[in-house]
Amino acid sequence: MNKAITTEHYNNEDTIPKTLWSETIIDILIDALHKGRPDDQIIPAIKSLYTRSFNTSHLIKKVNKELGEQYTTRLYALIKQIQSGHK
Q: Is 8 within the bounds of a domain?
């Protein structure tokens, strides 16, 4: 097994697939934001990350780094919308 995979960051065999899946969802989400997809196409990706207890502050930082403030503002608004139960 790769030495990087056996570090304490990966404390069980389920962590790696979950992390890879989350990163894939994040990539899809970033692409959807960048292409200006409608909310109903973006919200399921955000909800999917929520079900995996993904840290939203990490997501916001990643979107801000890759796409900038305008997209981060939209993502933040969608997260708040989900948290308030509107979608």
A: no
- The per-residue pLDDT string of the chain (87 residues; one tens digit each, 9 = 90 and over) reads 444 444 444 455 555 556 778 889 999 999 999 999 999 999 999 999 888 888 888 899 999 999 999 999 999 999 999 989 865
* Residue range of the domain that includes 45: 13-83
Number of folded domains that form the chain: 1
Looking at the domain assignment, is residue 7 inside a domain? no
pTM of the model: 0.73
Count of residues making up the chain: 87
The pair of structure tokens assigned to 5 is 């995979």
Please tell me the distance from the alpha carbon of residue 57 to that of residue 72, in angstroms, as a whole number.
11
